[in-house]
Amino acid sequence: MTSRPLIFTDIDGTLLDHFDYSFNHAIDVIEELNERHIPIIANTSKTFAEMEKLQQTIGINSPFISENGAVIYIPIGYFDEQPKDTVTQGYYWVKEFCPPRQHWLDLLAQQAVEFEDEYVGFSSFSVEELCEVTDLAPDKARLALVRHYSEPLLWKGDDVRKQEFIAHMTSLGAHMLQGGRFLHIGGESDKGKAMNWLAQVYANHYQAPVTTVALGDSGNDSAMLEAADIAIQIKSPTHDFPVLRKKQTIKSQECDSKGWAECITATVLTPSLVTSSTSASLTGA
Ligand SMILES: [Mg+2]
């Protein structure tokens, strides 16, 4: 039986360019995937509000994984039957993997007083301040602030204190994850667990095996990349490729959406090129 590909992709610095949030270089490939009915599933730290808008902009209608694997939103009716363990919220079937944001805000307020001058959390940011830190436009920054499961923190202290903070919060049951710009505090969920859960739902729906193809650029993508059948690391203009436990990954030559298009073309659209003339290099991690 033929295996059906599923594309799980990080958004910032992977499908969207790090500096200007554009995906222009990937448009042709996205259209090709849509024509072939190959799902593009966002797996991102972004919020529901951000992703719902972005799905429309990109032109995809698949389920998406939000807040670093904390939750999956599946458009109602996307599968024939509502997947088990989901609840209905608005236009979506929702699968949750961890406690809500308020739990983590309370933990920070009560248990991390000694670090409080060394970070700024999203809950203290105004729209204007977030625009300054991220270069997001105000309308997009407003959507980014509405989070449900996790709290991104901008670390202002030094690296030693950051490691102490991470160890302290981890000992209290938090899961700490370094993204491209922010240190995220949330529950024991990750992009890999959420991907695996959703891949199983697809396999049940297709009544066929699936091949998970994951793309990401940062440390918060590692769990997803390590769990994927095909792991693709997208080159970043700002940092090195994170080191993964998985032995082999494909590393893009180009950055951001250009690298995304390059690697999807090489692996999914023209698989025979992977071992011959692709510009993406298959290397040990
Ligand atoms: Mg990223």
Automatic annotation (TrEMBL):
Q: According to the lineage, what is the superkingdom? A: Bacteria
Query: Would the keyword Metal-binding be found if you checked this record's keyword annotation?
Result: yes
Keywords (alphabetical) are: Hydrolase, Magnesium, Metal-binding
Q: Which InterPro entries does UniProt cross-reference here?
A: HAD-like_sf, HAD-SF-IIB-MPGP, HAD_sf, SPP-like_dom
Task: List, in alphabetical order, the Gene Ontology terms for molecular function in this entry.
Answer: hydrolase activity
Q: Which residues belong to any copy of the Sucrose phosphatase-like domain?
A: 187-232
**Tagged with keyword Transmembrane:** no
Pfam families referenced in this protein's UniProt entry, alphabetically: Hydrolase_3, S6PP
Which NCBIfam families does this UniProt record tie to the protein?
A: HAD-SF-IIB-MPGP, PRK00192.1-5
Instruction: Output this protein's name.
Output: HAD-IIB family hydrolase
| UniProt source species | Shewanella phaeophyticola
Read off the lineage from the record.
Answer: Bacteria, Pseudomonadati, Pseudomonadota, Gammaproteobacteria, Alteromonadales
